[in-house]
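Quick illustration, no need to memorize.
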Amino acid sequence: MIPNRTATKFALIALAVLCAATMAAAGTIRGSSGNGEDSGAPNWLLLGRSQSIPLAANGKKVTMTREIICLNQDVENARPSPTLTLSGSCDTGDYMYLFQFQSTSANVGVSIGKLSGFDPTNANNFGVMICDSATNTIEMCTNDPTGTHIPNFTAVATKTAVTFTVPGTFPSYPAGTAQQGQGLTFFVITSQLAAPLPISLPTVGIR
């Protein structure tokens, strides 16, 4: 039989490992100005806005639009001397996934899963993207330039997923440009440094 002191030590170690694997945070509010300007879109916009996608679960409904940004403005095909075998990727493997939501439901949880190369301990890797600059009008973002109307959302992150929870009534926002869209826009950043391709495409669900 394991002595009580040893058993307690093992329990504390197990708890520490669990805490390290899961991080709860408010997330980061980031401005689209940090990702590039309109004139440089060929360098940072890897995959443009998708069509609106309906999602439903537990009596709740949302519509979602998604987009992919090259965090380091290094779209392979736009580089002076592209590596042909990496065509269609971000050269360094650093991807920013944008997910824009609209809903009339309350207490919506959004789960972004199957993430590859995601660091859950860095709160800068997930949060809300706001439209904060007139020099970037073609990136999907939330039309709340000062970030004063972003809800008090929470985020729980693991190595392969992050779940955003929006308490109360889901917020609505005025439409931005046609490219900025309309709705609450979450972002997730991953680093596929070892292999930029194939791109790991996250799954999205609500609860």
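The chain has two helices and twelve strands.
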